[in-house]
Amino acid sequence: MNTLRKSQTLIAVVFTAIGLTLGVVSMVQMRSDTSASEYPRCTSGPTGAPGSNGTNGSPGSSGAPGSNGTNGTNGSPGASGAPGSNGTNGTNGSPGPSGAPGSNGTNGTNGSPGPSGAPGSNGTNGTNGSPGPSGAPGTNGSNGTNGVDGAAGTCDPAIFGALTTDLIPSLDNTFVLGTPTKRWKSLQLGPGTLFLEDVITGFQAGLTVSGGTLLIDGADSLRIGNIRLTSTGIESLNSHADITIGNSGDSGYLSTARGIKFPDGSVQNSAIAIGNTGPAGPTGPAGADGTLAGDYGSFLDDTIQANKVGANEAIPVLFNTIDSASGVSRNADKQSQITFKREGVYDIQFSAQFDKLDSGTDDVDVWLSINGRAVPYSNTRITMTGNNVKNVAAWNFFVTVRAEDYVEIMWSSADRDMRIYSEGPTSNPDRPGIPSVIATVNQVH
């Protein structure tokens, strides 16, 4: 029964929906017909291709559902089916003690169901619910693309020939006369002025020809490449670039009306005439021999300078005595440094007496250093063989120095018994002492 009622209700709702739809379609059709008859159309030119449709607005909410119709009467129940046949009885047991009960016989099959009763009549339809409010209108769709432009109009050249007034554009600083690929061949202007607006100041400059002279009014200079013509002269935009007048090989001259005025205010109206070179005069007598009064210094040391550091160490030669000096000095704190007051070229000569206190063969190297750095290729090596053997190292260097530079004579030996030997005065006959080292310095340039 419940199933039947639900089916009837569903059928009623379907018919209700169909009725609503037909009613709305009818109303829309009537409104469409009325609009078509009430508004006559104007005649227009060919329209462009239509733009694409805008997006649809969201649908309005559904109206409330109508009330359910009354249920139809139930159909009469169908007739009952015939009962099934009984099963066969079991055989009786023999009398006496009762035997085990026999198994139940199989049940008879069920009879076929009776035919269904006729369906009840449909209930009456419920009244239609009132329509829901209209949904809010959707947003406007984007504009469609513009239609194809109509054909361009033609321009009669006779229009320009018939001009009897000024030709003024409808908008300021907008339209162009010609293009890079569509150019006017010539521009003919009568007596008058061509005005150009300054892109920076906004003022106008006028271009006029008067009496064969090109006049530029409103502009105080004319630039041609690096050259600028001003109201008072010619100048170069690049202050380091020369200004050339004429070309090499020209046969003409540069003529000035009055002369040439120089930056110091002096004026030259004519050039000094220069004649041909005359013959050389006789040679004069030779002058007296000049003298060189350069800086100098003489230094020595009267002590034995031992090898206190051994191999792989450079030892500076010391000078404990200044014999004479001018412009060349010895550092009081570091007696190995000879300092120059003035720059120049100097000749440095020295002699040092080496000896060794052991047997065998050993080497000693001697070189020059300037400001603590060895002078390239200034080293000399001496080889000494035997005990208490002596050898004198003596040569000179030419060096170029700056003011306040200093030089040192350096030496080195792997033999700890190598030394620079000094000896005091001796007699029979009387002889002066032997310094361990002597150095002289003379400025030659």
Q: Give the total of beta strands.
A: 22
Based on CA inertia axes, which overall geometry fits?
Answer: flat
Question: On the 0-100 scale, what is the average pLDDT?
Answer: 78
* Major sheet: 7 strands, antiparallel
CATH class of the domain at 296-443: Mainly Beta
Structure classification: mainly beta
Low-confidence stretches: 20-45
Fold-level CATH name of the domain at 296-443: Jelly Rolls
The number of helical runs is 2
If classified by CATH, what would the architecture of the domain at 296-443 be?
Sandwich
Radius of gyration: 66 Å
How far the N terminus sits from the C terminus, by CA atoms, comes to 140 Å
**Percentage of helical residues?**
under 10%
Write the H/E string, N to C.
HHEEEEEEEEEEEEEEEEEEEEEE
Task: Report the portion of residues in β strands.
Answer: 25-35%
What does this structure look like?
This protein has 445 residues and is mainly beta. It has two helices and 22 strands. Among the domains are: 205-238, no CATH class; 296-443, Jelly Rolls. The strands form five sheets. Strands 9, 10, 12, 15, 19, 21 and 22 form a seven-stranded antiparallel beta sheet that branches. Strands 11, 13, 14, 16, 17, 18 and 20 form a seven-stranded antiparallel beta sheet that branches. A three-stranded antiparallel beta sheet has the order 1-2-3, with no helix packed on it.
